[in-house]
Description:
The protein is mainly alpha-helical. It folds into two domains: 60-116, no CATH class; 119-412, no CATH class. The protein has 17 helices and five strands. The protein has helices at 3-42, 70-80, 101-116, 136-160, 166-169, 191-201, 213-218, 230-239, 249-261, 268-280, 286-291, 297-305, 320-324, 340-350, 374-381, 386-395, 397-402, and strands at 173-176, 181-184, 223-224, 241-246, 333-336. A five-stranded mixed sheet has the order 3-1-2-4-5. The radius of gyration is 23 Å and the shape is globular. The termini are far apart. Residues 28-96 and 114-119 have low confidence and may be disordered. The site of one 2-acetamido-2-deoxy-beta-D-glucopyranose has 3 residues, from loops. The site of one 2-acetamido-2-deoxy-beta-D-glucopyranose has 4 residues, from helix 4.
Amino acid sequence: MNLKQVYVSVLMFGVAGLLLFMYLQAWIDEQHAESEEKLKQQMGQDFKFCYTEEPRRAPRKLITSQKLDKSSMVLIESVSSHADASPFPGMTASLPPELSEEQQKIKLLLKQFKQVNLPPAVRPLNKSFIQDDRWKATDEIQEKRRAFLYNFCKKYIRESKPLIHLMRMVSRIYVEDKHKLLYCEVPKAGCSNWKRVLIVLNGLAKTAYNITHDAVHYGKHLKKLDSYDLKGIHMRLKTYTKVIFVRDPMERLVSAFRDKFEHPNSYYHPVFGKAIIKKYRLNADGKALTTGSGVQFKEFIQYLLDSHRPIGMDIHWEQISKLCHPCIINYDFIGKFETLEEDANYFLRLIGAPEGLTFPNFKDRHSTDERTNSEVVRQYLAEISATERQLIYDFYSLDYLMFNYSASYVKP
Ligand SMILES: *[C@@H]1O[C@H](CO)[C@@H](O)[C@H](O)[C@H]1NC(C)=O
Ligand SMILES: *[C@@H]1O[C@H](CO)[C@@H](O)[C@H](O)[C@H]1NC(C)=O
Ligand SMILES: *[C@@H]1O[C@H](CO)[C@@H](O)[C@H](O)[C@H]1NC(C)=O
């Protein structure tokens, strides 16, 4: 063998190894997805809507047409074949560009998406239903928030060109057709009561107070935006009033922890608790390892900040920026949990909700627990180090920046 032959064979070994590795990686991902799926089935209906899988790492090169359903496949394809004319900057994927007739049509439709939202534009709020001065102060704050987010997003979009898949982008948005509303659900920021209000607005219930927690989250009353076809999504994004309610990231995180790990839970304990205890607790006893109950806040934070988490993320502690994509979907109204009732009631008047409908103020789960207020948050944060607090801030930095939350919990 001369030198050239040696070189070629080494190269071929390398390539074969790489291919094998990629194949195995895809296979492992699939197995992982399957076992999660099985677990979900075993556990039945219990957590149907409380659980979302971690948005899978966009599997770029290894994607095959069978793996995606037709519509999302088309979307990725048409967007990528328009790399520079992409309706959402940074939305890319690599798939072959050959398009069928149907795909051509969708491509045309997608072109119009450009007019919907980007570059982010502050669309004036229609205030024709507001007749008195009652809401003046609330409105001023609202306009400031809108302008703030707009200015942030202009810079952010230009600099970081976020990657996103259209169907995933709208997957957390609920639709209310009567009042032409789109509500992006942020768990632990008043979302159960918002869903109740949507059910009432939709005419499916007379009052929000009689709708149980289970009916809200497991019932089939509300439709999500990703259940419509492209045309339906497009029309609604363009013409409906889009609303989001957010919350201080640290408070939201503590609230999620208390809700999911400090009360019996037939999903979060066996699925998340077990994995967390197994990885982060030294000398865990058999009971903790089998039930997954009793996760400590510190352990939960270790899991959150781990770049190799033993189990994926969950919507209750996922970043708002990833759940609702505020820089891509131009929300018309930005409510805050800190001023929930005031913001929500102003919003209800803005959209011309029935006079008698006000935002419910009850806490339907663990209602005897103290609410997660700033005092409670500080108690939890005292259990972790300053470095960990800083890393939590970094993890949620986009949420902090988009909604002008101060870092006051980071350095108490
Ligand atoms: C504002 O809302 C009112 C009531 O729904 C409607 O009649 C009016 O056309 C809207 N104005 C604009 C500019 O959209
Ligand atoms: C709501 O519940 C109360 C009692 O639980 C009942 O009296 C009332 O009729 C219910 N209202 C509606 C609209 O179902
Ligand atoms: C952002 O928050 C700070 C306080 O943390 C406040 O002083 C400032 O007015 C806020 N900016 C806007 C535009 O709301």
